[in-house]
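During the reporting period, our protein records have gained a structure token line. A sample record is set out beneath this paragraph:
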Amino acid sequence: MRNIKLILAYDGTDFCGWQVQPDAPSIQGTLAAGIGRITGEKVLPQGSGRTDAGVHALAQVATFQTESVIPAANLVVALNDILPTSIRVLEASEVEEDFHARKSAKAKTYRYRIFREAICPPFLARFVWHYPYPLDENAMREAATFIEGEHDFTSFAAVDPERGRDMEAMGNVRRVFFSQWTNESAELIYEVRGSGFLHHMVRNIVGTFVLVGKRTLKPEDLARILGQKTRAAAGATAPAAGLFLVGVDY
């Protein structure tokens, strides 16, 4: 039995998210069907995390076990021939038996893109949150620093009915190594790297930062919101379109 690691990029717009759902197309289900067609095996690839409906990935990691002798490099070609063009396999490699896409992960990086000009080009609309209204971007940059460090992120976590027991045991404490807003052309971009992320956590943080940008909240309110440990204390969930899983560290 071989353990195969895949690195995937995908446009999540037309999918219900990573995880298999009974009545909607998912990244995991589409990938599983492709692997099955090639190997003749019934497998369920495990991802580094469950991206939500409409969320994208530049380098999602997935692992699956197979008895197939097809070389890893050939799997890349074969899968990309079968999969829809919105999902691409960038790399495939054989890894140690105990390597697991999610359980072995040490950190993840996410990026959120806000398009600031009055008119959003149609070629960008699937990949940004179009927000042309006034924002105090300097205040948002200051607010981002309050997220760094180890915190209980309950205030930024949506209820996740499919959360596994191993995740429940971890609680809602996570460590954020890096949290920063930058400007790139017409976009305001948030990048965050952490030990792990809760359900909707990045989108809820971004939605709260926008309240800071609108001056409804002050940057230092982020510390208070973290301390309250209730979802009601934070802002609304930012749209899925602007969020990308950038990469996973092992």
